[in-house]
Amino acid sequence: MNKNNKSMADYSKQFENEILLNFQFKHITFNKIKNQYVATLIDKQEYEILKGFGDTVLDAINDLHSDLI
Fold first, then answer.
1. 14-56 pLDDT, tens per residue?
2. Contact in structure between 28 and 39 (CB atoms under 8 Å)
3. Which terminus in the chain has less CB density within 10 A, N or C?
4. 54 with 66: CB under 8 angstroms?
């Protein structure tokens, strides 16, 4: 792995941590279960509607999105 790839991986990990710790989304929650991230769509009554899973936060968001389409 060259230096640029490592920097991008580090940036991606930092971005994922910021999403998990700092962003307050109104209808999506994020969790990490074992080594997998979970993005959950919730309704106004806080019922879980749909989940997306992935190795990264972005993968989980993309999985959730593709389940909607």
1. 777 777 666 677 899 888 899 999 999 999 999 999 999 998 8
2. yes
3. C
4. no
3-class DSSP assignment, residue 68: helix
pTM, to two decimals:
0.71
Domain span at residue 15?
Answer: 3-68
- Asked whether the predicted pLDDT for residue 1 surpasses 50, the reply is no
pLDDT at 13 over 70: yes
**Which of 11, 39, 44, 10 shows the shortest CA–CA distance to 26?**
44
Residue 20's identity, in one-letter code, is L
Q: Within a 10 A sphere around the Cβ of 20, how many other Cβ atoms?
A: 14
Per the DSSP assignment, residues forming a β-bridge with 10 are none
Q: Give Dmax (Cα) for the chain.
A: 47
